[in-house]
Q: What sequence folds into this?
């Protein structure tokens, strides 16, 4: 019975400001989570600042140029079935990332159930869907560079800042997805091998945090760069 | 012994949120067919914030974390709103000076003397 009190401190949801005060002032470990998870959250916090700076820089140059901004709806349209569908590839990429977020969430759940076969399989599926995303992005970049003539210093459609901000923001995001695919694959192989049987499967949740964050950033890029 | 450690929740909630994120993404995509204007921008922001909220709260388990961690992570980005506000003002100012000093020299005769 007495045990439940101490166990409840770990990962439970006691509401209220009291817990904030006690956690920060109790002269002990502040975050009641594994250190790896706390560090991942702090890394993601710093990444939030980086991506926000990029998007804010993009907003600034877009607001400050008197030259009309190229219409993303037309720039990113694809010709299929004899007609032009706006933002088609970007829409597919969005659904692709959402799908991978779902498989990642399931992997975390199976990890904590100590079902390491399913957890590893779901992580590898997530990595594969992420790799498809990077592939589609490579296709998108190729089309923009080769066919549409968009460069970081200019383009035929309008404001020359379009290319600079586009390649910077989507490039940095694509780099995150690529790193995530590598990270997921490595951890999935280690999960499959049984490396975490003794230590526990928090690592799957930590990888999951990173992966969901990559999806989260895409939500903002999709809204501000492609739809705005 | 039951698992007391870590974020363990029923699978059902993940499938619900997954479906919801698909629906919100479809709604987001659909805004591209609207005319540019405040209505479209409001919808884009609403769907964006809802998607972000569900991802952070459920998929990243923030809903079930302790308040000390929640505020350590979600509090600091609030200062970014100051940066965004400053850069919006700065951008407007830069545009107005560009229009004043770098605009096309071919202007109607009546307006040429203004500057």
A:
């Amino acid at each position: 019975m007495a045990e439940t009190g101490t166990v409840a401190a770990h990962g439970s949801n006691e509401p209220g400001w009291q817990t904030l005060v006690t956690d920060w002032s109790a002269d002990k470990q502040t975050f009641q989570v594994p250190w790896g998870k706390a560090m991942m959250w702090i890394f993601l916090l710093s990444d939030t600042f980086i991506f926000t700076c990029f998007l804010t820089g993009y907003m600034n140059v877009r607001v400050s140029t008197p030259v009309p901004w190229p219409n993303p709806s037309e720039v990113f349209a694809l010709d299929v079935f004899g007609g032009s569908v706006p933002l088609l590839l970007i829409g597919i990429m969005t659904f692709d990332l959402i799908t991978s977020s779902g498989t990642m969430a399931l992997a975390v759940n199976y990890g904590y159930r100590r079902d390491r076969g399913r957890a590893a399989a779901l992580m590898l599926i997530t990595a594969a869907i992420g790799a498809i995303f990077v592939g589609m992005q490579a296709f998108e970049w190729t089309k923009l560079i080769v066919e549409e003539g968009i460069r970081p210093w200019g383009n035929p459609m309008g404001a020359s800042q379009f290319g600079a901000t586009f390649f910077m923001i989507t490039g940095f995001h694509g780099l995150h997805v690529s790193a995530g695919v590598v990270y997921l694959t490595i951890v999935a192989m280690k999960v499959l091998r049984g490396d975490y049987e003794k230590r526990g499967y928090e690592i799957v949740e930590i990888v999951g945090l990173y992966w969901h964050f990559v999806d989260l950033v895409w939500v903002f890029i999709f809204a501000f760069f492609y739809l705005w | 012994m039951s698992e007391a450690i870590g974020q363990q929740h029923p699978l059902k909630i993940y499938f619900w949120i997954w479906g919801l994120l698909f629906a919100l993404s479809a709604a987001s995509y659909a805004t591209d067919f609207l005319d540019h204007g405040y209505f479209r921008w409001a919808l884009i922001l609403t769907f964006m914030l809802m998607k972000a909220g569900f991802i952070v709260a459920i998929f990243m388990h923030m809903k079930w974390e302790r308040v000390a961690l929640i505020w350590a992570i979600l509090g600091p980005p609030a200062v970014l709103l100051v940066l965004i506000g400053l850069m919006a003002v700065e951008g407007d100012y830069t545009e107005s000076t560009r229009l004043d000093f770098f605009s096309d020299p071919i202007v109607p005769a009546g307006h040429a003397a203004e500057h």
